[in-house]
Write a structure and sequence with these properties.
Blueprint lengths: L17 E6 L2 H11 L4 E7 L4 E9 L2 E7 L32 E4 L5 H10 L8 E3 L6 E2 L8 E7 L5 E7 L25
Parallel strand pairs: 1-4, 5-9
Antiparallel strand pairs: 2-3, 3-4, 6-7, 6-8, 8-9
Organism: [Mycobacterium] crassicus
Protein name: VOC family protein
Length: 191
């Protein structure tokens, strides 16, 4: 299985312990992540003082996806707190410090079958994007320059999810892109 394997000289990370998201309906979330995506529910708890709930789902490789349910959480605002659409279908911008999307690594030889399986379960999936270094950074066809294949879909709360598979080894970026700064933004920060 092809995956990046850079060495961290500062900290020995072995993956993501968990990422924590917020849902509006824990029962729908449990149904989607266990019955649609097949992720076992491994821990669930009520927060102290009627503060909500916190559930953990096994995403494989020792990694978990967790959800909070808060009784007073505000609703999602598409285009601000999350993308208004999924890549390949519409606008993907979201606000600073929000989760734009969550990508799950899947085996390349099962990629197309997994996409069809989601469709068969009634999940609306976006087009396959073959990410490459072309002007638009995606191709409708798989070719030698493609480094990752993916498609996107949403959970019941509109959280953008992605199934992705690496198609080539990363050997180091010959031409690094210069990182942008806050000064490069076209929108003023809210104060």
């Amino acid at each position: 299985m092809i995956k990046p394997h850079g060495v961290n000289p500062e900290f020995e990370f072995s993956g993501i312990n968990h990422v924590a998201l917020v849902c509006s309906d824990m029962a729908k979330t449990v149904d989607f992540y266990t019955n649609i995506l097949g992720m076992p529910l491994v821990k669930s708890l009520d927060l102290p003082g009627n503060g909500g709930q916190h559930f953990f789902f096994d995403a494989g490789n020792g990694d978990c996806v967790a959800f909070f349910w808060f009784p007073d959480a505000p609703d999602r605002v598409p285009g601000i707190s999350s993308p208004a659409a999924i890549p390949g279908i519409g606008e993907i911008t979201s606000a600073v410090s929000t989760l734009n999307h969550l990508a799950f690594h899947v085996p390349a030889d099962k990629f197309d079958a997994y996409r069809q399986r989601l469709k068969d379960k009634g999940v609306r999936v976006g087009p396959v994007l073959n990410h490459d270094d072309s002007k638009w950074q995606a191709s409708m066809t798989l070719h030698e320059g493609v480094y990752v294949r993916s498609f996107y879909f949403q959970d019941p709360d509109g959280i953008t999810l992605e199934f992705a598979c690496w198609t080539k080894e990363f050997t180091g970026d010959a031409e690094h892109v210069t990182p942008k700064t806050a000064a490069d933004r076209t929108v003023s920060a809210v104060t």
